[in-house]
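Design request, tokens follow.
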């Protein structure tokens, strides 16, 4: 029996928040030199297909904190974006069981030409909140983000740290039932890292909230997560107890 089949069997008696079945996601890459040759020689453009996620299946019970680890290019972030509805799978399915979901990821979801304040409204509406609900939380989000006068400046003027502060604040204050986090806890100044880590601990202590964290940080995953899923070359190499999987992963990466 495979690791993913064991994982699904162990969780069948619990309430499921996320169910991923036979998920496949691929990219098509067009090489630049092929385009030039095609124009000059009237040949077809050479398209290469890259399979980022290959027949992946797993479940996440309600209230769990699942960590995902793996080297760059293993398919972690692609899968997370598919769970958030940003990418469409080529085949397979993702069932969030009707739960509200938010993705916390640098470079995703903001309109860079408008202000941070306006992006709070836009992001909140995309998460399914009403304008009234967002405005009721607006001051709290702005205070947590600590952006000062930049909150009324276009997001394109923000540094990556400022971007992450605003993204984290929106997701943390407008609490959804499922939180998907992609490496954001490692971005920002030391003060904000400590504050966001403390806030994250508060959020995930709510057993009605389900969290999936993609990270390369062993200590973060060890301290926050109950289980860890190790992805390698688009497939699940191991899933199970956080410390056991992380130890095996570290040995593999030596």
């Amino acid at each position: 029996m495979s690791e993913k089949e064991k994982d699904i069997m162990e969780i069948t008696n619990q309430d499921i928040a996320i169910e991923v079945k036979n998920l496949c996601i691929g990219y098509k890459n067009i090489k630049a030199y092929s385009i030039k040759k095609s124009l000059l020689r009237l040949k077809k453009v050479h398209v290469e297909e890259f399979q980022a996620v290959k027949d992946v299946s797993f479940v996440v019970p309600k209230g769990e904190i699942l960590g995902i680890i793996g080297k760059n290019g293993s398919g972690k972030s692609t899968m997370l974006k598919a769970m958030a509805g940003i990418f469409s799978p080529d085949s397979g399915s993702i069932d969030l069981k009707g739960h509200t979901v938010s993705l916390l990821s640098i470079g995703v979801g903001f309109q860079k030409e408008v202000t941070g304040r306006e992006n709070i409204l836009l992001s909140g509406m995309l998460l399914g909140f009403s304008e009234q609900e967002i405005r009721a939380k607006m001051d709290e989000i702005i205070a947590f983000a600590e952006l000062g006068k930049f909150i009324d400046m276009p997001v394109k003027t923000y540094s990556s740290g400022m971007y992450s502060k605003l993204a984290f604040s929106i997701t943390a204050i407008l609490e959804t039932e499922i939180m998907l986090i992609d490496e954001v806890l490692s971005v920002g100044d030391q003060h904000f890292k400590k504050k966001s880590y403390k806030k994250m601990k508060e959020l995930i202590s709510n057993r009605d909230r389900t969290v999936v964290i993609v990270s390369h940080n062993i200590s973060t995953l060890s301290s926050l997560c109950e289980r860890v899923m190790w992805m390698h070359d688009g497939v699940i190499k191991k899933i199970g107890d956080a410390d056991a999987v992380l130890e095996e992963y570290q040995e593999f990466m030596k």
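Comment from the thread starter after seeing the answer: thanks! The radius of gyration is 20 Å.
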